[in-house]
Amino acid sequence: MELRLYDTLTRTKRTFLPLRQEDVRMYVCGPTVYDFAHIGNARPVIVFDMLFRLLRFFAKKGVWDDGKGQTRVTYVRNITDVDDKINNRAAKDYPGISLNEAIRRVTEKTAEQFHADVKALGCEPPTYEPRATDFVLPRSDGKADMVTLIKQLIERGHAYEAGGEVLFDVRSMPDYGALSGRNLDEMRPGARIAVDAHKKSPLDFVLWKQSSEDEPGWESPWGRGRPGWHIECSAMSAAYLGDVFDIHGGGLDLIFPHHENEIAQSRCAHGTGTMANFWMHNGFVEVEGRKMSKSDGNFVTIRDLLEKWPGDVLRLQMLMTHYRSPSDWTEARAFQANAELEDWAYLLQSRYTWSDAVFPEPTAIAEILADDLDTSNALTFLRELYGRAKRGTGDQILEFAASCRFMGFRNLAKPGYFSQINTGIGAGSGEAVSKNASRIQALRAAYANTAPPQVIKSIRSEIENSSVRVDVNDKGKIVLIFGNRQDIDTRVKELIELRNEARARKDFRESDRLRSELAGMGITLRDFKDPHTGEPKSEIV
Questions:
Q1: Cis before residue 360, ω within 30 degrees of 0?
Q2: In angstroms, rounded to a whole number, what is the distance separating the alpha carbons of residues 255 and 253?
Q3: For residue 376, which of 512, 526, 283 has the smallest C-alpha distance?
Q4: 258 marked among binding-site residues
Q5: In 10 A of CB 446, how many CB atoms?
Q6: CB of 384 within 8 A of CB of 527?
Q7: Cross-strand pairs, 227
Q8: Is 260 in contact with 179 (CB distance < 8 Å)?
Q9: Are 317 and 195 within one domain?
Q10: How large is the C-alpha radius of gyration of the chain?
Q11: Is 209 flagged in the annotation as binding?
């Protein structure tokens, strides 16, 4: 059993082996806490939470330490709490108080919301979560800090003072641009690269800049000021993981200039040939097929989505797509994910007693994930486990439950998962909604104290008719799918045929998409091959 990961720097998928047998070390860029995290911020949090789980599984199995299982995994995700965007937000939101106090309020409020968001997404906390402001000046514990790193860069000839700033000299590093695949001579300053006359090269970037009296600042050899963004991560990663570590992660948007500049600073300050052994980057997130933008009105925060959907729905939709591919958040896929999770939760709650459950190792699903964190195929396998568990024994249900837990869906078996009945309308026409609204309100009161599985059965039996299909999400909200029953049945047959065609041509991404669409209609499939022709077939279970 081996773990293979794609490395952005070498553009290859390689076998992962930790640099130190006793400790796997991973650093992921965290939030800048000036505003609530948006749906795009959710993706790296979920992706690297899955990698954290997978690394710990390998460590526990003793893959890297001759079967002893003593390798630990150290996961560091920082919080950037010093940044001009924070200063601007603080001045705007709290104009009547000092800027430093306003900054404290903004960062505390935003960090608190971020922690609540990622917990709701099923993500486990990192081993360490350093704040940038704690690593500006030399520390009593000897951990790396920003001022010391900047001094080292100046001493080694990689940085210089000019115009009240300390700047990194990019031409002092011959292979600058290797991560992003850019040639230094071909690079030009633009929207993400500031142009100033005091720079030796327009591409030189700020390590330290002056602060005015009302701006946050620290006394340094270069006067009172504050650090540049890039030096923060170089200091915090070195503080906890050392000069060279195993994995550095983040979103594609961070490759240039942030990660490129991190590499330059860290390598030149420490005199090393690399900063991290693997560089991993997740793809972008669109909303309803379009780039997310406040001006386009499709900017969505995690907090906004959690008011409508349980965190498991966000997590499942993110994991449906391979982490390096672009992901599209849509309401339709959210309904599909929600319906699928409801089915899983119903099975787990109605078929087993969990108080004394002993879960097996999720080895089979971990082996799928071991191929560059292939969550898409892992979910396909999880759906197969679900089909077996529906027809099978307690052991098969336990295997399904263990795999759900490993993927981060830990709450499906908890009795409180279907908590209370609220009115919530899913896909459908306004006319059909209005006809059923009063009935839903009555059902909410009637079944408020009923055990979860009975709630679902009772509601479905009460309201199901020729024009409505009823489901209940994990917050107890009724989800209605409207349409003529005959039309729905015809559409189901069409989707199954399209999916079988996709499987025959080995278009597994389209196959998974169609399966998810069917799941959103409450349809679960069992796949098999025709015993006579060998063609892929499916049947409803």
A1: no
A2: 6
A3: 512
A4: yes
A5: 14
A6: yes
A7: 208
A8: yes
A9: no
A10: 26
A11: no
Q: Verify that 213 and 123 share a domain, yes or no.
A: yes
If one counts the domains in the chain, the total is 4
The range of the structural domain enclosing residue 499 comes to 486-540
- Say yes or no: 474 and 490 in one domain: no
Residue 425 falls within a domain, yes or no?
A: no
Q: What is the pLDDT along the chain (541 residues), one digit of tens a residue?
A: 899 999 999 999 999 999 999 999 999 999 999 999 999 999 999 999 999 999 999 999 999 998 888 999 999 999 999 999 999 999 999 999 999 999 999 999 999 999 999 999 999 999 999 999 999 999 999 999 999 999 999 999 999 999 999 999 999 999 999 999 998 877 765 545 556 788 999 999 999 999 998 899 999 999 999 999 999 999 999 999 999 999 999 999 999 999 999 999 999 999 999 999 999 999 999 998 899 887 777 889 999 999 989 999 999 999 999 999 999 998 888 888 888 898 888 888 877 666 667 889 999 999 999 999 999 999 999 999 999 998 888 889 999 999 999 999 988 877 655 432 222 333 333 333 334 444 544 554 555 555 445 555 555 555 554 444 444 444 444 444 444 455 566 777 888 888 888 888 888 878 888 887 777 665 777 888 878 887 888 877 6
Q: Is 233 annotated as a binding residue?
A: yes
Residue 92 is assigned to a ligand binding site: no
Residue 422 lies in a domain: no
Whether 123 has a binding-site annotation, put simply, is no
Domain presence at residue 387: yes
Task: Kindly state whether residues 78 and 206 are assigned to the same domain.
Answer: yes
Total residues belonging to the chain: 541
The two tokens of residue 410 are: 């830990």
**From the CB of residue 24, how many other CB atoms can be counted at a distance below 10 Å?**
25
Q: pTM of the prediction? A: 0.79
DSSP state of 172: G
Q: Report the sign of the C-alpha dihedral through residues 233, 237, 238, 243, in that order.
A: negative
Q: Are residues 197 and 64 in the same domain?
A: yes
Rounded CA-CA distance 225/216 in Å is 8
Continuous segment of H or E residues that includes residue 319 = helix 311-319
The DSSP string of 290-312 is EE--TTTT---BHHHHHTTS-HH
Residue 524 contacts residue 517 (beta carbons within 8 Å): no
Instruction: Using alpha carbons, select from 366, 361, 359 the residue that is nearest to residue 394.
Output: 359
The verdict on residue 449 lying in a domain is yes
